[in-house]
Design goal:
Strand order of the largest sheet: 1-2-3-4
CATH topology: TIM Barrel
Number of strands: 4
CATH superfamily: Aldolase class I
Shape: globular
Strand content: 5-15%
Number of domains: 1
Number of helices: 4
CATH architecture: Alpha-Beta Barrel
């Protein structure tokens, strides 16, 4: 019998930071990442890489951590309508964050003739191109 594995995805650094009176410093965030890694959390959502200078700094510094159990994920949204994925201001910070995992939230509306502004294939192409230029 094959055992099923449940992967844990923690959103403390983004959702938890939205609580009233909470403002994590970069050092706080890095310490939380270390503790979540010690707890065995599989994925740690670090927030949106370009939402503010603190999050940009976090993504630069988290690359220096040696994690045993966790992977840090970048969080963001789909590309803007009429924007090219390769240059979109929502997508490029995710690609450039260095995160191995990206979580994308998409919104849609049920309107006649509506076309979603984002295709997963577009994002995958950008990530693959980026990976080849970094390697």
């Amino acid at each position: 019998m094959v055992k099923a594995q449940v992967d844990l995805y923690d959103t403390t650094l983004r959702d938890g930071a939205q609580s009233e009176g909470i403002s994590f410093s970069v050092v706080d965030k890095l310490n939380i990442v270390r503790k979540l890694d010690e707890l065995g959390i599989h994925y740690i959502e670090g927030g949106y890489p370009s939402s503010n200078p603190k999050d940009s700094e976090f993504y630069e510094k988290v690359k220096g951590l040696t994690l045993k159990n966790s992977v840090v994920a970048a969080f963001g949204s789909t590309r803007r309508p009429k924007s090219k994925t390769e240059t979109d201001i929502n997508i490029m910070p995710l690609v450039n964050s260095g995160a191995r995992v990206v979580t994308i939230v998409g919104k849609s509306w049920a309107q006649p003739g509506y076309q979603p502004p984002f295709k997963l294939v577009d994002f995958m192409v950008v990530v693959e191109r980026r990976r080849k230029t970094v390697s």
